[in-house]
Specification:
Two copies of one chain form a homodimer. The first copy, chain A, has one helix and 17 strands. In chain A, strand 4 and strand 5 form a beta hairpin. By secondary structure, the first copy, chain A, is mainly β. The first copy, chain A, has a single domain, classed as Ureidoglycolate hydrolase (Jelly Rolls), CATH 2.60.120. In chain A, strands 2, 9, 12, 14 and 15 form a five-stranded mixed beta sheet that branches. A five-stranded antiparallel beta sheet of chain A has the order 3-13-8-16-6, with no helix packed on it. At the A-B interface, strand 5, strand 6 and strand 16 of A face strand 5, strand 6 and strand 16 of B. Chains A, B: Keywords: Hydrolase, Lyase, Purine metabolism. Chains A, B: One of its GO terms (molecular function) is ureidoglycolate lyase activity. Chains A, B: Homodimer.
Chain lengths: ~170, ~170
């Protein structure tokens, strides 16, 4: 059922707009510092990889994600109660980022963002978010998140899907 | 002084050859597991981001590194006594990885590797390694390493440089 009240239009991703949900990972976030005798510039400490619980540690992985059709029919969001989760794309293609504020343990109305080339995101611990949603083509990511014992996934199925559009025209 | 005894030829990077120094980060290291209802494949836990010391945490950054001329004149290696350091390139270009075994607190003879497209590396804590050495063109990396108080850098200047060649022919 295409209820217009369920339509969301994605906005350009910005650190300010995304602040309630985590961090934007890009070179615009901090001033660079020189390293390697000035032959490299480091943009330091762009994501807060909080992990909690006994035996928790930060793990690094790679993810190959298939593209989704847009407008995106958003049926499900998830969150990770024991750790943050960061994704950095390995190419310059934009991808869709959908997050929800928490409302008494359930996701509120989604907010959608389109990344600029080379932007990544870090979802703060316990932040409702959609699955990885490239569009147009498959996309690979570095993922930095939590490893260790414990149940670190909570999913929420919406009664009705939200429809996420890339622009007001479609 | 070009002493032939100081000449090193880089080898293709492989997990087995690199094992004494850390981990190779690529999709060949582990079987993938499905995520996002089968719409993505995750290659999990590819790097051991060990961090130690009071207030230590894992940080994520981005690095823009300038290219080096090859053959590489290697004057200096460094190591990080308080944490591992992982680099994942944001494009498919190979880069040069130079590491040294430790010999009583000093670096032994270097070993050099050329990455395959999309391979990254994680230097284990306290492993002697060269600075980031793209060649041919500048290259950007995701870096995952340690933040926190303490002195986490030790450098070693070689009395004579080592010359790292990309192949036996030059």
């Amino acid at each position: 059922m295409t209820d217009t009240a369920r339509k969301i239009v994605a906005q350009p991703l910005s650190a300010a707009a995304f602040a309630p949900f985590g961090q934007v990972i890009d070179t615009a976030q901090v001033a660079s510092r020189p390293m390697n005798d000035g032959r490299a510039r480091r943009f330091h400490d762009l994501a807060e990889i909080e992990v909690i619980g006994n035996g928790a540690r930060v793990v690094v992985g790679l993810v190959e994600a298939e593209p989704y059709a847009v407008p995106l029919w958003l049926n499900l969001v998830e969150r990770h109660p024991l750790g943050a989760q960061a994704f950095v794309p390995l190419n310059a293609a934009p991808f869709l980022v959908v997050v929800c504020p928490d409302e008494s343990g359930k996701p509120g109305a989604p907010q959608a963002f389109i990344t600029a080339p080379h932007q990544g995101v870090c979802y703060a611990r316990n932040t409702w978010h959609s699955v990885l949603t490239p569009f147009g083509a498959a996309q690979d990511f570095v993922v930095i998140d939590r490893g260790g014992p414990g149940v670190n996934l909570e999913e929420h199925l919406f009664d009705e899907p939200w429809i996420v559009h890339l622009s007001t025209s479609g």
